[in-house]
Amino acid sequence: MKLDIKKLGPGFLFAGAAIGVSHLVQSTRAGADFGFGLLWALLLINLIKYPFFQFGPRYASATGESLLVGYRKMSRSVIIAYIILTFATMFTIQTAVTIVTAGIASSLFGGSSLVFWTAIITGICMMILLIGRYKILDNLMKIIVLSLTISTIIAVALAVKPTETIDFAQIIPKDAISVAFLIAFMGWMPAPLDISIWHSVWTVEKKKLNTGITPEQSLFDFNVGYITTTILAIGFLSLGALVMFQSGESFSSKGGEFANQLIRMYTYTLGEPTKVIIGIAALTTMFSTTLTTLDASPRVMSKSVEIISEKNFKKGYLFWLLVLVTGTLCIFFFFISEMGLLIKIATILSFLTAPFYAFFNYRLLNSKHTPKEARPSPFMKWYSILSIIILIAFSIWYLSTL
């Protein structure tokens, strides 16, 4: 298949939303605390979640509809449950990614508080979304994701010391704290499963801009984004393991201090002159996550309400955007010093709700609402069923440790 960069887009938006807290925060912390011991968990969760993420663009490219429309066709109760779950988690998720972004901005430019940078970043994101909407997201994400991929691969290569032996022994956490971290780590690795719905919405938007996109090109675009997020996750875990593991230093739970440690970790391997470049790369990465999540949650909430009410609301996107911004800022002021707690809550909630999205994505793609040619192969069906069982098993394991 001939590669046309103009037809790529939703896959990079997926990567932009995924490569954020899960990579910069959770993956580096996994490497710093456990070395390469949780590499098995990283690879396993990427394999488990793959089919359910893929079902988003697969359904949208085959039908021209988002997964939300498919949910409604299956049952009214499914989309109602989705609205409740999204409303319950979107504020915490947005606050978590915004705090990390503000922390990096404060570390990079200095002289201002997290409150100031949170207001500035949120304001800039709102302006971009209100002015440019999908087209700006589409173009911006390609540059950001490619730039970060290159800089991270170089940083990992320079961090490897030929004279030192790397321990790849894998670890299965036993105590409650370590199990909680494992579930949090897997919750947003490579991203929460509800991003499959965002991806289906972005695919529909992309088809409006370029009607020549085929289902095969849409899946290729998704695979490019998914493989990129997996490679980068391994890269961030490797940086944490190579630079901080057994160094006597651990990552802070405070946004600004964590950002300083993250940038120092890069400059330790790439050299002090690269501090500004790495800082900007980290900032743009987290900014992309903040931007895509700020766009996606209001977009899907607006569409969900329209579908369930069977009415068209012209100001629906703007209304939910303002609701999300207001709720995010309120949570931010109450939890300003608890970045670690916020991220843990958000990531664990994402993991515990993953079986819901996995099951209904699987059910929709194997139903009469999906064209036969777009339905999963027998192998993909069994792959999906096994993945759902593993997701449920991990959730039960975590709940049994509480």
Provide the descriptors you would attach to this structure in a database record:
single chain, 402 residues, mainly alpha, Hydantoin permease, 15 helices, globular, disordered N terminus
Total count of domains: 1
The main sheet comes to: none
Helix content: over 70%
Write down how many β-strands occur, each being a DSSP E stretch of 2 or more residues.
0
What radius of gyration results from the CA coordinates? Answer: 20 Å
- Could you name the CATH topology? Hydantoin permease
- Helical stretch tally: 15
Helix-strand string = HHHHHHHHHHHHHHH
**Oligomer status:** single chain
Structural class, from helix and strand content?
mainly alpha
In CATH, the homologous superfamily goes by the name: Hydantoin permease
CATH C-level class: Mainly Alpha
Mean pLDDT: 80
Q: Do you know the CATH architecture?
A: Orthogonal Bundle
Spatial shape: globular
Distance between the termini: 50 Å
Strand content: under 5%
Low-confidence spans: pLDDT under 50, at least 5 residues?
A: 1-7
How would you characterize this protein structure?
The protein has helices at residues 10-18, 21-34, 39-63, 67-74, 76-109, 114-131, 134-159, 176-187, 195-209, 215-244, 255-270, 275-309, 316-334, 339-365, 378-400. The chain is mainly α. The chain has a single domain (5-400), classed as Hydantoin permease. 50% of the residues are buried.
Topology:
Elements: H1 10-18, H2 21-34, H3 39-63, H4 67-74, H5 76-109, H6 114-131, H7 134-159, H8 176-187, H9 195-209, H10 215-244, H11 255-270, H12 275-309, H13 316-334, H14 339-365, H15 378-400
